[in-house]
Structures are given as structure tokens and as C-alpha cells.
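C-alpha cells as discussed.
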């Protein structure tokens, strides 16, 4: 394995405390090229699920009880999180769905124009309306969440485009499934309509995500970035949970833990590990707009499995300083929360010899929701120190969601509202 000593100069963000004298930390580097080929022994195995728990994706029944109790009591920061949700127009009971028969992302052979932003916006609206119904019993929002999902289930039949259609499936498939998981107990959603929505996900989203994970469009395994792999893995997992399909859930577990040929396999999910507890983000040499997507998506995957009794938050088979989600969260947060921070970087190379020799400063300072989930698990639940994850979560608090971070599709890459939903 390649090893070298690097210096890491870190400075606490001035927004929260005075900037102290930078410290120099000696770091030992472990490249993930060798780790990708390691076989995990049975002593590290978490096993597979044999039953499905509902609600059991991003939020459990206990989570919703905590949200409702604290919002009704006016407790902070839950109340700020709730007000952030209510202020978002996508959460309104008057939001009107705009389903299409074919979702298009990228250049479609048919010549159809891109329209995938409609699915981005409507999936976010379904989730946000569902939260308002589940937490506060807003009947109008409950009815609207179901109406949005019913409209898409009836009309949409296909996802089209070039390879970017895989992003349309990955980034919105798990979001639709999470909205439906919340609403599955809603008495106003008929069994036939709920079944129709599940079939919509099974027939429109699942085939695209499943095929991508299996073939990667006939490219080599690390051709695609982590966000492509992890988003599609989240979609397969979420559809499996929604549809009580144990085989799909176990496929997602096995892909991450053992057999994945792409970048969402644990041996490739980060590209280098350092003795200071950081793990290098796989897209850090690309740009920070995409690098900051890694934490919300990786966190979503771990959280959905956690609510199915599979703790991949703490899964650390090679006994690094931190498990990979916390390590990469610290790395990406440190580099983006304060431009005076420096982080180590190890040259990243994929299966096509696309070398990235330096960390990219493009879009440095990108802010996305998603760090509340990571912060609350590792700091509040596990009692760990996570300096930069804490700073990033504090800077974004209260987290918003789709539509709060711009008008393009990047605003809808994650569901958000973690201050409301994940605060402990």
C-alpha cells in the first residue's frame, strides 16, 4: 500500500469561535486501491434482513414520536426545523403535481426535451406534504401527498435520456419511496392506489437503477462517480423496503458490504484514509458541488438500513480511526466550511486511468443539507467528536429541503429537513 506523510493545517471556523493557531498533524495515508480487493471475514458481517420494518426508511415510528412531541412543545431546534418546512412552498397542501408520461434527463434518442426537474420537484413536494401530515396531522397535506403520488403512478411509464437517466432514477427513486413509506398508514390511500404506486416504482425506477448497478452502461466498475452508484443503491434499497421485497434489501446490503462492482462498495466509497480520522471523498478531485453530495447520499443509505436493524453507521471492517461515513463527512466538511482549512489529498485514479492529482477548489464552500443526520448519530447518539461535521451542521441549521437551495436540480439531490427529523 502506498504510504506517505502529509501535513494537515486546520483552523476552527470563525463563525463559531476565534481562530486558534493552526496545528500541524502528521497523517499516514492508506490508499483504497488495495482495500477494494480485500475480502471481509465473517467476523465483520452484519448479516441480512429476514423481515421488513415499517415505517423503516429514513424515519422510524420512534423518530416521528420525537418530532411530534418536540414540535408541539415548541422545543428548539425542532420548532425552527418545522417552520423551515412550512415555509417551503413544496410543502403546501395546494401544491399541484405535474406528472409526465416519460421522464427525460440528458439527450434522449427520441428527441424529447429534458423535463426531469418536474419529478425532482414533485417528489420533494410529496415528501414534504407527508411530513406535515405525519408530524402534525395536517389532513389537507396528507391528502395532497397521496394525490401527488397517485398522479405520477397513473401517468408516468418510462425514464428516457442518455446515461443521465440513471441519475433521474437514482436521485428521485428513493425520495418517492420515502414519501410513500410515510403515507402507507394513511387511511385515505386506498390499497389499490398504494399498490399502483409501488408498481410505478417497480416498473419505472427500479429497472433503471438495477441495470445501472449491474452493468454501469457496459463501462468498467469505477467509471462512474460515487453519487451515481450510491443514489441508485439507495433507490433499490428503498423500493425493496417499501415493497416488502427482502431480496432487494439484501442485494443492497451485499453490494455495499461484499460484491459491488462500482464505487458504492465499501472498499471504494472513499478513496484514501488518514490517521487524523478523515476519509478522502471519492469526488473531491472533481469539484466540491458534487463532493458535498456524497455525505447526504451515504447517510441516507446508512439511515435506511439502520431502521431495518442493520448498523452500517459504525461498520468499520478495517478498523480505521473512524467508520467511512464519519471519516468522509469530516473531510468534506473541513474543506468546505472554511477556506483556510487544508486537508490531505492522495491522487485518485479510476479504472480508466483518469488521474486527479490535486483536490478541486471548484465550487468550494457549497452548502447542502444532510449533515444533521451524520452529526446527530455520531455526536449526539454515539458521543464521538466530529469537529467539522458539527460546524457544517451548525452552519446549515435549520436544514431546509428541496427548493430551499436554488432552482436547479441540485436543490433536489437530497430530501433535507434533518434539523426537524434527525435532531436528538
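Sequence:
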Amino acid at each position: 500500500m502506498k504510504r506517505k506523510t502529509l501535513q494537515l493545517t486546520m483552523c476552527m471556523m470563525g463563525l463559531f469561535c476565534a481562530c486558534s493557531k493552526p496545528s500541524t498533524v502528521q497523517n499516514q495515508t492508506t490508499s483504497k486501491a488495495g482495500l477494494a480487493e480485500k475480502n471481509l471475514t465473517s467476523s465483520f458481517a452484519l448479516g441480512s434482513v429476514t423481515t421488513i420494518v415499517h415505517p423503516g426508511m429514513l424515519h422510524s415510528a420512534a423518530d416521528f414520536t420525537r418530532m411530534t412531541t418536540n414540535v408541539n412543545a415548541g422545543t428548539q431546534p425542532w420548532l425552527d426545523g418545522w417552520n423551515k418546512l412550512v415555509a417551503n412552498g413544496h410543502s403546501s397542501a395546494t401544491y399541484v403535481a405535474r406528472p409526465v408520461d416519460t421522464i427525460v434527463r440528458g439527450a434522449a434518442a427520441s428527441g424529447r426535451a429534458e423535463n426531469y426537474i418536474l419529478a425532482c420537484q414533485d417528489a420533494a413536494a410529496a415528501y414534504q406534504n407527508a411530513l406535515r401530515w405525519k408530524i402534525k396531522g395536517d389532513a389537507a397535506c396528507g391528502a395532497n401527498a397521496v394525490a401527488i403520488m397517485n398522479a405520477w403512478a397513473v401517468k408516468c411509464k418510462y425514464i428516457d435520456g442518455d446515461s443521465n437517466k440513471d441519475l433521474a432514477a437514482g436521485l428521485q427513486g428513493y425520495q418517492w419511496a420515502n414519501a410513500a413509506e410515510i403515507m402507507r398508514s394513511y387511511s385515505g390511500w386506498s390499497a389499490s392506489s398504494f399498490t399502483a404506486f409501488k408498481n410505478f416504482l417497480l416498473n419505472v425506477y427500479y429497472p433503471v437503477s438495477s441495470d445501472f448497478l449491474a452493468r454501469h452502461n457496459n463501462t468498467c466498475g469505477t467509471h462512474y462517480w460515487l453519487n451515481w452508484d450510491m443514489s441508485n443503491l439507495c433507490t433499490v434499497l428503498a423500493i425493496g423496503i417499501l415493497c416488502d421485497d427482502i431480496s432487494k434489501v439484501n442485494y443492497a446490503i451485499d453490494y455495499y458490504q461484499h460484491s459491488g462492482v462500482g464505487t458504492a462498495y465499501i472498499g471504494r466509497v472513499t478513496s484514501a484514509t488518514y490517521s487524523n480520522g478523515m476519509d478522502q471523498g471519492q469526488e473531491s478531485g472533481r469539484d466540491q458541488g458534487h463532493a458535498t453530495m456524497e455525505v447526504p447520499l451515504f447517510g441516507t443509505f446508512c439511515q435506511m438500513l439502520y431502521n431495518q436493524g442493520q448498523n452500517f453507521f459504525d461498520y468499520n471492517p478495517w478498523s480505521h480511526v473512524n467508520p467511512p461515513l464519519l471519516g468522509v463527512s469530516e473531510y468534506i466538511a473541513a474543506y468546505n466550511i472554511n477556506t483556510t482549512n487544508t486537508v490531505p489529498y492522495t491522487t485518485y485514479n479510476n479504472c480508466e486511468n483518469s488521474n486527479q492529482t490535486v483536490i478541486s477548489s471548484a465550487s468550494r464552500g457549497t452548502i447542502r443539507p444532510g449533515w444533521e443526520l451524520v452529526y446527530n448519530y455520531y455526536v449526539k447518539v454515539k458521543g464521538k467528536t466530529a469537529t467539522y461535521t458539527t460546524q457544517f451542521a451548525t452552519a446549515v441549521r435549520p436544514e431546509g429541503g428541496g427548493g430551499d437551495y436554488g432552482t436547479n436540480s441540485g436543490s433536489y439531490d437530497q430530501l433535507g429537513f434533518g434539523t426537524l427529523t434527525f435532531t436528538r
